[in-house]
Amino acid sequence: MVFLPSDSSFWSAFSNQAAIQVEITPTQGEISVGESKFFLCEVVGDAKDIDWYAPSGEKILPNRPDIFVSRSDETTSTLTIYHANVDSAGIYKCVAKNGDKEAQATVQVKIFQKITFESAPSPQEFSEGDDAEIVCDVISSPPPTLIWKHKGSKIQFAKDVRFKILDNGHLQIRSIKKTDEGMYNCEARVMARGEIDFRMIKVVVNVLPTIRARQSEVNATADVGSSALLACDADGFPEPTVTWAHNNVVLETGDKYSLNEDGSELVIKDVAKVDEGEYTCIAKNKAGEKAEEVSLNVFVQPKITYLNNQTAAEFDEQVTLTCEASGDPTPTISWSFENRVFAEGQQSLDRNIVVRSHARVSSLTLKNVQFTYAGQYLCTAGNSIGQDDQHMYLEVRYSPKIQGPVATYTWEGNAANISCEVEAHPGASVLWFRDGLQLPSANMTNTKIYNTPTASHLEVTPDSQYEFGSYNCTATNAMGTESKEFLLIQADVPSSPEIQGVEPFSSTAVVVFGEPDSMGGVPIIRYRVEWRLPGQQWTGREYDADDATSRITIAGLKPETTYEVKMSAINGKGESESCPASTFKTEPVLGEPSAPKLEVKVQKGGNSLKVNWIKQDDGGSPIMYYLVRYKARHASHWKPEIRIPNASEYVVLSGLDWNTEYEVHVVAVNQQGKSEPGTVSFRTATEPTTVPDAVDGGSGLGTGAIVGILIVVFFLLLVGVDVTCYFLNKCGLLMCIAVNFCGKAGPGAKSKDIEEGKAAFTKDESKEPIVEVRTEEEPVPNQEGGGPTEPNETTPLTEPDGKTVKDDSTKGETEVKNATAEVKTVPSEAPQANGNESKA
Q1: For residue 125, how many other CB atoms are within 10 A of its CB?
Q2: Rounded to a whole number, what is the largest CA-CA distance in the chain?
Q3: Neighbours of 185 (CB within 10 A)
Q4: Do 155 and 148 meet the contact criterion of CB atoms below 8 Å apart?
Q5: Residues with Cβ < 8 Å from 806, sequence gap 6 or more?
Q6: Taking the CB of residue 265, how many other CB atoms lie within 10 A of it?
């Protein structure tokens, strides 16, 4: 806007233009607050003085700080307004004088405020849910019009009532959300000047932390060196910091506590009972803080704190055992003695044993004390965490108690021990008497006394009827004395056993019998069994007796033949009379033997098995040999058949595959033919893992030494095989040298069959393992079965004079009689012969 001189100034200048004229440049006088501007007053004509006057009418003096007047030459003067403010507005006048001549001009100066943002900070932060007020303080003259924009668009206040422009121009957002976050544009406009300006304000919405404990309660055990982990997960914006407090003390990483990087996990080391309580997890950010409590429950394993040994005397009114224990939860205390357990409130049927508990103390009261109460008592304190056991000993002092069998049986010339077993505390001294006289005495020189800590034994060797009768044992200690009479009774021979039945077979028979009604006072030690053809002499044999003996096998009988059999029992006194003879008839020859019964036993190593067999009915003809064959269950072909001597009772199969199911068949062969195969299946063990030798501290051989030893062994093995081939089969390197260089034919191979019990090898073209057979002398047990199974023939036969009877078919085979054969398979690449052929 341009301001012209007022009418009075114009006409004054016009009337005096012949003399002096004044003109102010620029003619416009608009200044923005804070800006500076100058005005030039030019005079036409001679002027001695040129002065400027403020709107107040005061003459503006030179060198004012805000308004400066300077005269450049005789015709011009400059008015400069520095950093204008609203007080600088008004009409300024320039007056030129020369004597009585005067001229003036005025200019009206207007001061305006351009758009100015006094306060529009960025970013501005608020908490979610608060009524946010976004500050944008802007001034101008005239006052500006404010427009708010968000995400590039003008905010539609009518559509979202949460948004509102306050009287001061600030933008209010009620219950601000995280989605309201972003850049806001505060735009100011002055329509009169077409002026516009804006500020971008970043609005950040902080979210109050949320916090969640992973476990509201954590259990730990004290005094076992364990740690407890307390954890909480916090969320919010900005990401909150997490701290832990206990008893209003903030916890920090150290010897007792450790925190992970974000503070969400607190580890309490070496938990003790004092660590129990509430722990506060605190999450804090700019929006505020939240806290969550986590309870640490510290349990304590039971520990028995008091338990002492006690002493009482028999027949005391009562004795009380006390056991105290600590722990959390409070432990339950129980007592046990031998195989009996006593808990709170329990008592024995006779009401002599009562248990009472209070808090952490339990008492076991024993009324009317008996000597049997003495011994070790166990106090057990247990809770959900564990238990503690401790023993105490109750010592009961009591007078002697004499025990032991009253009657002892013997016979003249046979020493017998009469045992007086004494229980006493303190220990008792024991004396023996006969007819009031202390033993040993001059009248009874055939007695001896042997004492042990718990018994006294009187050894009597009677040589007449006088030594049989009553003997007195008297025991004495500080608590009292007790006596007891013992009887030494003349023993008798047993009564006859009763034959209950005979189970005949073709060449054997099983005699089933019941023990004698009277043992004669002493145990049966043997049974005598005698059998014969009617009208001929008896053949007998004695068999050792035990508690389970009720079946005895007799062998060497003829098929389809009638026999008589009788029995007698033998004890230390002598032999009973024979029971009445029973008659039976053997079965006819059945032909082939029955299938052997097989049993398997794993040998040391895991891939070796011992297969035992029990011979059944031989069919009336002696077993000549056994045929053994086996194979892996998944294999289609059997291993080469192995022939085992008739006296052998087992075979050992070695070098088997690990963790493999095998099937074994054993066939018994007599002159009539072969039995059905006895079969058994088994699985070998899993191959053990090889444990490497220790690296340090060992004294094992080096790899080079081991390789050298293996080479030497392999060389010696080759030499041994070559020598064997030379002498046995007329082949090999030595044979080649002998024939080609010495002109000698090797020694002939032995053609006779292998002697039973010696080494034999079975070979075939399938490169199957070499089988080694060897025999071992073993006693042959008497077979006792529960059914009509044919007994074996390993029981020696006896003639009437008691000598062993040998079957003709076994002549020449005494080397393998009662021997067992062991067969081991060894993997080999050597060529093998076919079938059941063998070479020695």
Answers
A1: 15
A2: 200
A3: 18
A4: yes
A5: 797
A6: 18
Residue 759 tokens, joined: 């080494």
**What pLDDT digit, counting tens, does each position of 454-500 carry?**
899 999 999 888 889 999 999 999 999 999 999 999 999 999 999 99
Kindly report the number of other CB atoms within 10 A of residue 458's CB atom. 23
Cα separation, 570 vs 444, in Å, equals 30
Residue 728's pLDDT band, with cuts at 50, 70 and 90, is low
Comparing 815 with 304, the larger pLDDT belongs to 304
- Rounded to 10 degrees, what is the CA torsion of 36, 40, 41, 42? 180
Mean per-residue pLDDT over the chain, rounded: 81
Q: What are phi and psi of 12, to 5 degrees?
A: -65, -45
CB atoms within 10 A of CB 497: 25
Nearest to 68 by CA among 57, 52, 55: 52
Closest listed residue to residue 364, CA positions, set 308, 402, 420: 308
Cβ 69 vs Cβ 122: under 8 Å: no
Q: Confirm if 586 and 505 have CB atoms less than 8 A apart.
A: yes
Residue 821 neighbours by CB distance under 10 Å: 26
Tell me which residue of 348, 341, 345, 390 sits closest to 366, measured CA to CA: 348
Residue 164's DSSP bridge partners are 172
SS3 482: strand
Nearest by Cα to 244 from 208, 287, 277:
277
Residue 363, SS3 per DSSP:
strand
CA distance 610 to 682: 11
* Confidence band for 516, pLDDT divided at 50, 70 and 90: very high
Q: Is the peptide bond before 779 cis (omega within 30 degrees of 0)?
A: no
**Cα 374 → chain centroid:** 40
- Give the contacts of 122 (CB within 8 A, at least 6 positions apart): 199, 200, 201, 202
Q: Cα separation of 447 and 454, whole Å?
A: 20
- Distance separating alpha carbons of residues 545 and 567, to the nearest angstrom: 13
Residue 558 has pLDDT above 80, yes or no: yes
How many Å apart are CA 125 and CA 203, to the nearest integer? 6
- CA 227/CA 330 separation, integer angstroms: 22
Residue percentage of the chain with pLDDT more than 70: 82
Which residue, 172, 91, 86, 184, is CA-closest to 131?
Answer: 172
The secondary element (H helix, E strand) that includes residue 718 is helix 703-729
CA distances from 70 to 36, 51, 84 (A): 15, 9, 18
Residue with tokens 């293996």: 710
Smallest CA-to-CA distance from 633 within 659, 604, 610 is with 659
CA 33 to chain centre: 86
Residue 710 belongs to what H/E stretch? helix 703-729
Tell me the sheet residues that pair with 622: none
Tokens of 50: 């040129």
Residue 234's pLDDT is what?
93
Can you give the length of the chain in residues?
840
- Spell out the long-range contacts of 69-72 with Cβ–Cβ below 8 A and sequence spacing 24 or more: none
b (16+ CB within 10 A) / e for 187-213? bbbbeeeeeebbbebebebbbbbebeb
